[in-house]
């Protein structure tokens, strides 16, 4: 649900085209380093930890917990800005959607969902696990 | 107390009195602040051989404004850009350039007219470029300065129990000071209740937790000791500096930890001082949470104790233990061009000179600290710290 929001379009690069192709198919990819084994965010070719270029896309669980969030009340429509810590380790910037913003808490379990932009890109956003199963 | 070695001297400081510059061009404001600081120092534009400016200066780096001002003696330029903290870093870099013999009289300028240009509402015009590697991971999600500071405050509250009432005390202190500043954008004295009654704009931040949007600017003149002593102004020594960029660290970060923890430590070590020695602080106040985190990270209180530290008027001059932003700060007085670092240094210079408004002047203010947080706390930012001493 985008509630009529207009999104700035992501502009994929040679480094990230596969990620956005993945979200279009409902797949959430995470970049991990074969050399040091660590996943990072945002995805990049050169590992931010060991500087190796032996990084690869791996299928993410699409699950995590809310690290922090803020309801952007000055925007019309309102939206929930958030950082989500992925089960793979790193924390990513995103939005929490399909939820009652007033009931959100830091630490809540969330899972990925996709919100389409005007140009058809699928943005990885998150929704509370409890509401999704309700 | 033995005198500490000076890295350089600040001999000129000028804050433009305007807060709404519809009647002035941006270049004109740049020139007016430059000439104001030179006049304060007792120098002229032909004494300037080093020019430091940020991207607020229109044109390619320093070139167009050097041309407009007709600066003919330049032999050193520096356009370091860390957004709002740039001008604090420029003082440090000017001191380094002077020590290296690369210039003798450094001019640092800031000017902006976001109100006149219609950016007073709805946040900044974003200049981000899709080639910026973070663009596609942040812009589509609606990142704005307001909501990343909101997330930072939300997590600080979660980790440490910080409250909206405590944040409100920071604005209350700024407003108490601003009532004495005839140039302040807002001279309204507010209470904790007033702050809490202002609308929530981005949880947990309310409208009165946010800085003002103003036009104007300021300038500084930094020089070496022999020249400083030849002038007629009270001596203000730069005795410690530090800078620290802080970012997302591959996705493993703590947004309630600012770069001030590093920039502050570097500056205190260089000055041979500890936080308890400081009589006055200018702290970057884009939002109330920015102030609270700098107090903790600079070591004025333990991490997580910022809320209790700022409560009950502890930042009000003549009332509390640590007077801050006695000009009214960015929260009430001035945040020219959406960049608050310049005005932080200017008020610290006034305090060390003994030239702050008498109602807010800190007694025997021989040691002051100014800190800038440029960029976005909670995403990527640079902290810059200066420690100043009366000469
Ligand atoms: Zn690695």
Numbering strands along the chain, what is their spatial order in the largest sheet of chain B? Answer: 3-2-4-7-1-8-11-10-9
Shape of chain B: globular
Largest sheet of chain B: 9 strands, mixed
Question: What is the overall pLDDT average of chain A?
Answer: 94
Number of discrete helical segments of chain B: 13
Structure explained in plain terms:
The complex is a heterodimer of chains A (about 130) and B (about 400). Chain A has about 130 residues and is mainly beta. Helices cover about 10% and strands about 40% of the residues of chain A. Chain A has a single domain, classed as Beta Barrel (OB fold (Dihydrolipoamide Acetyltransferase, E2P)). Chain A has helices at about 15-25, 130-134; strands spanning about 30-35, 40, 55-60, 65-70, 80-85, 90-95, 110-115, 120-130. The longest helix of chain A has 8 residues, at about 15-25. Chain A starts with 16 loop residues before the first helix and ends with a helix. The model of chain A has no long low-confidence stretch (mean pLDDT about 95). Chain B is of the alpha/beta class and about 400 residues long. Chain B has 13 helices and eleven strands. In chain B, the strands form two sheets. Chain B has a nine-stranded mixed sheet, with helices on both faces. Chain B has a two-stranded antiparallel ribbon with strand order 5-6. Chain B is globular. Mean pLDDT of chain B is about 95; it is low at about 120-125. The chains are: A mainly beta (about 130), B alpha/beta (about 400). Bound molecules: zinc ion. Zinc ion binds near residues 38 and 52 of chain A. The site of zinc ion (ZN) has 8 residues of chain A, from loops.
